[in-house]
Amino acid sequence: MEKPFKDKTALITGSSRGIGKAIARAMSCLGSNVIVNYTKQGGSSEQQAKALSAEIESLGCKSLIIRADISSRDEVKDMFSKITSSFDSLDFLILNAARAPFKPIEKLFERELRMLVEVNLFGNIYCFQQALPLLEKSQGRIVFISSLGSRFYNPSYPLGIMKSAMEAVIRDLSCSLSERGINANAVCGGIVKTDSFKVLRQVWEGIERIPDELIVEPEEIADTVTFLCSPQSRGIKGQTIVVDRGLSNRVYHF
Ligand SMILES: NC(=O)c1ccc[n+]([C@@H]2O[C@H](COP(=O)([O-])OP(=O)(O)OC[C@H]3O[C@@H](n4cnc5c(N)ncnc54)[C@H](OP(=O)(O)O)[C@@H]3O)[C@@H](O)[C@H]2O)c1
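Above: inputs. Below: predicted complex with NAP.
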């Protein structure tokens, strides 16, 4: 049976590890070519990106690794030059990369505040601006990865502010771009045990008490992303779908 995303191409920002990696795998399982992006030069990120890229190619899909810091407009421009010279189209833009200090807002240094905004708001907008002509040609999809911090208080989690802002950006884009045939949605994930969880558990007393059955697997986020990239989700526009195993339905603390 032909794979539904055959001959399509996805850029997944921050896909060397964690949730981005699970999304890259899920997209390639459905036949999509994948651009794997990460930012840290050398070391384990680069190695993980190479291993992931080899895995994607073993499924018969094309894969390109691009090291680029999305908070740099120039690096994002370079990334898109590489994409256009290697692929005929870009069909899916998955805005997954994030980096943020884990500390209370009142304790943020100016450089941390800048990093928060520059990676998680500017960076996503730079990517989207560069992707726009390509997505218009392919009538493509944008999916942003948000978190529960967009709507609930999480201790030492200023990233939540940027997640709220980006959910609003997605809502805006879905309206302003609909005439151009581009659709945008978001997936708001619950707690996922990736590398960032290791930091979160140091600042969020009680997070360890959340029962295992309420911990989300990266693949559960990835499956919702592939759904939002599929024609079956064509009626969903500008929405944020919560994938948290029902954690946010519970009003008590653990
Ligand atoms: N973990 C959770 O509980 C959770 C829950 C809900 C939503 N989310 C969201 O899901 C997404 C992925 O989270 P995760 O936990 O999988 O993160 P992670 O394990 O910390 O991985 C982050 C990825 O983003 C990349 N990245 C960071 N800054 C970047 C930049 N400036 N430019 C390009 N790439 C950059 C990293 O690259 P390097 O490897 O080079 O550093 C890495 O590939 C984030 O948006 C996060 O907010 C996470």
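Residues 13-20, 37-40, 45, 69-71, 96-99, 119, 123, 145, 147, 159, 189, 191-192, 194-197 surround NAP (CB under 6 Å).
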